[in-house]
Design goal:
The protein is an alpha/beta fold. Helices cover about 30% and strands about 35% of the residues.
């Protein structure tokens, strides 16, 4: 009987630890996004991103790959300039268990068990991908992805970076089919 009371808590923990990238987008309704056929990276914006050069290269490679898959071409005379911005913050989740050692009376129900409160600290990262009209230098589209970051192997970082970029760029151009 005690195990059945712990199952919902375990499921909640598993689901929350596997959350994918949360994505939002915003865009200017004026431009015709079909006219954008080429892109280049906007170095002044990318240089301001407060992450390692290794992480910047991972992100830029993933963006380039996704944009080429969408039919855009990398160019020295682009229609779109691509910039990135990143933020990260420490997130502390506090879980309050309803179980403690001994018997507790909860309304009509009682519970035995071990447990109590515990906290889990994770680093949450946000990646902004900005598309700037190269002709007039105005922001025309922005995608923002937020998810937990994991300190792990280089391969895992590569995979997580690709996941971030893929999830964000699934919403480009505006009106693109979403998952």
């Amino acid at each position: 009987m005690k195990i059945f009371k712990l199952v919902p808590l375990l499921l909640l923990f598993l689901v929350s630890s596997c959350v994918s990238v949360r994505v939002t987008t915003d865009y200017d309704t004026g431009p015709d996004f079909k006219k954008y056929k080429s892109f280049a990276f906007y170095k002044p914006g990318i240089d301001k991103a407060d992450i390692s050069d290794l992480d910047k290269r991972r992100i830029l490679r993933a963006i380039e790959s996704e944009l080429i898959a969408k039919g855009l071409q990398k160019s020295d005379d682009p229609d779109l300039l691509v910039s990135i911005f990143t933020k990260e913050k420490e997130r502390i989740d506090i879980y309050q268990g309803g179980f403690g050692y001994g018997y507790h009376h909860y309304g009509y129900y009682g519970a035995y068990g071990y447990g109590g409160n515990y906290a889990r600290s994770t680093t949450e990262g946000t990646l902004f991908i900005d598309f700037i009209d190269a002709e007039n230098k105005r922001l025309v589209w922005q995608g923002k992805g937020t998810a937990s970051l994991r300190n792990s192997s280089v391969e895992a970082k590569e995979a997580r970076t690709k996941e971030f970029v893929y999830e964000i760029l699934q919403r480009y151009p505006p009106g693109a089919i979403q998952k």
